[in-house]
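From the pipeline queue, job 12 of 40. The input is one protein chain; the requested action is below.

Action: predict structure.
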Amino acid sequence: MRAHPSQQPDSHPAMHLLPESDVIRMAHSKSSHRWLREHFDDEYVKRAQRDGYRSRAVYKLEEIQHRDRVLKKGMTVIDLGAAPGSWAQYAVQLVGKQGRVIALDILPMEPLPGVRFITGDFREQEVFDNLLNAIGNNPVDLVLSDMAPNITGMNAVDQPRAMYLTELAVELADKVLGPGGTVVVKAFHGQGFDDLVRDLRTRFKRVSVRKPKASRPRSREVYVVASH
């Protein structure tokens, strides 16, 4: 869905329920071994398996929904960085048959009933045009973004990349949101975060910062909820 490194392990697309054989191949370091232990012991991974969701990240969106009621019946929703699809799974249940969920990612995603999936980078004109065609004449009510870069461990590299993806999501929301629309976007505490929140507060009526319980405590990730 974008020309960027794929998501970090705690993010929506990459933290999907990998087959054990695939996950084992990741274990090439002490940190990988720690990640594996946490992954298989994680209560949210187990819940996702039981509940039939593709990723533990669904419970981040669920908590945001309980607090902010961002999803309602009949809405048109765009899900950025959607693969493997748990946010779209959750959203399509809440918007119902009268609503629409349009998911985008540069990564492939298995089809989901009721979800229109577009593969590609929305900065490219053809992909953006495909998105506009999918939206049609209906205003977009909600833009969701769980995009995040690969984490190198070097904050001077990671934070600017993360902020860039956050800003891309906000720019897209500016272009497609209708009156009263909302954007929910992943961001990371660090350089540029406070400026982002200040800027959003000049452009949206309500801006809140959420740290869902399903977000790993050591992660600097948060979600900014901004509504017109």
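Job complete. Residues 75 and 129 are 21 Å apart (CA to CA).
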